Amino acid sequence: MNASIIDGKALSEKIKQGLAPTIEAIKAKGITPSLTVVLVGEDPASQVYVRNKHNTFIKMGLDSEVVSLPSDISQAELLAKIHQLNEDPKVNGILVQLPLPDHLDSQLIIQHIKAEKDVDGFHRLNAGALMTGEPQLIPCTPYGIMKMLEDQGVTLRGAEAVIVGASNIVGKPIALLLQKAGATVTICNSKTKDLAAHTKRADVLVVATGRPMMISGDMIKPGAVVIDVGINRLDNGKLVGDVNFDEASQVAAAITPVPGGVGPMTITMLLVNTIQATMQQHGLEELS
């Protein structure tokens, strides 16, 4: 293997250690940053994600609550719960775990979270702030990716960045962040013709499609930095990304593993966002 491994676990621990003095300073003012996660239904993957988030917050000395609601809850009932959390001064951050059951309108639910408590960064006001180059609360996975690239010393100004996947959660916001950093950005999707022609130009390749190992080694530019956002479980139980790791690691200069790459960083940046939201709500100095 030629590629160096971008260790998301190690970087997330480094960031969390750096946050400890800020957390202590906030708590010294009688304020404990607080996250409430709303979990609808009993999706096993969602339960694992929520448990990991909850445990991270508790270990860092923050308040965390999981509100578990039945899968058949009505939209009106869920909106009422969101409104209650919006008005609770003890709740600094609100996260609705996605995906929601089909009968619920995810976009409508998200837009009812107060923008200043939207620690996922999905509210239109936060998305608009990102688009205009003045980000407030940044979506956690793209935020984590930028921290990984920064930690690796990747030069983004003038670089060719290619993103495969155009979701509101990853693809679109990471495109805006990379563009803000000076990269030339191409966004591809499932309808892109000759996908490999685009990916082979990328100095930085970000893949977030949810399709296991769709990017092969011959689709990657030698020396590229590859960020694999996907996490897929094969029939044999093995977890793999959207990139064929074995092939890609022979070509790329650096690559994120699955698991242990982007995933830990996503949770850590949720922690950062919740602390940032708490400071803003209490008029404290923002995180640098």
Number of helices: 10
The radius of gyration computed from the alpha-carbon positions, rounded to a whole number of angstroms, is 19 Å
- The proportion of strand residues reads 15-25%
Biggest β-sheet description: 6 strands, parallel
The CATH class of the largest domain, by name, is: Alpha Beta
Q: What's the arrangement of strands in the largest beta sheet?
A: 1-11-8-7-5-6
- The CATH topology name of the largest domain reads Rossmann fold
The SSE string, one letter per element, is EHEHEHEHHHEHEHEEEEHEH
What coarse outline follows from CA principal-axis ratios? Answer: globular
The domain tally reads: 2
CATH second-level architecture of the largest domain: 3-Layer(aba) Sandwich
Cα distance spanning the termini: 36 Å
Proportion of residues in helical segments: 25-40%
Assembly level = single chain
Low-confidence stretches: none
Q: How would you classify the helix and strand content by structural class?
A: alpha/beta
Note down, in words, how this protein is organized.
The chain is of the alpha/beta class. It has two domains: 30-115, Rossmann fold (3-Layer(aba) Sandwich); 140-263, Rossmann fold, CATH 3.40.50. It is built from ten helices and eleven strands. The chain has helices spanning 8-28, 44-59, 75-86, 106-111, 124-131, 140-152, 171-180, 195-199, 245-248, 262-281, and strands spanning 4-5, 34-40, 63-69, 93-96, 160-164, 184-188, 204-207, 225-228, 232-233, 239-240, 254-255. The strands form three sheets. It has a six-stranded parallel sheet. A three-stranded parallel sheet has the order 3-2-4, sandwiched between helices. Strand 2 (34-40), helix 2 (44-59) and strand 3 form a beta-alpha-beta unit. It is globular and about 50 Å long. The two termini are 36 Å apart. Catalyzes the oxidation of 5,10-methylenetetrahydrofolate to 5,10-methenyltetrahydrofolate and then the hydrolysis of 5,10-methenyltetrahydrofolate to 10-formyltetrahydrofolate. Residues 6-120 form the Tetrahydrofolate dehydrogenase/cyclohydrolase catalytic domain. Pathway: One-carbon metabolism; tetrahydrofolate interconversion. InterPro entries: Aminoacid_DH-like_N_sf, NAD(P)-bd_dom_sf, THF_DH/CycHdrlase, THF_DH/CycHdrlase_cat_dom, THF_DH/CycHdrlase_CS, THF_DH/CycHdrlase_NAD-bd_dom. This is Bifunctional protein FolD.
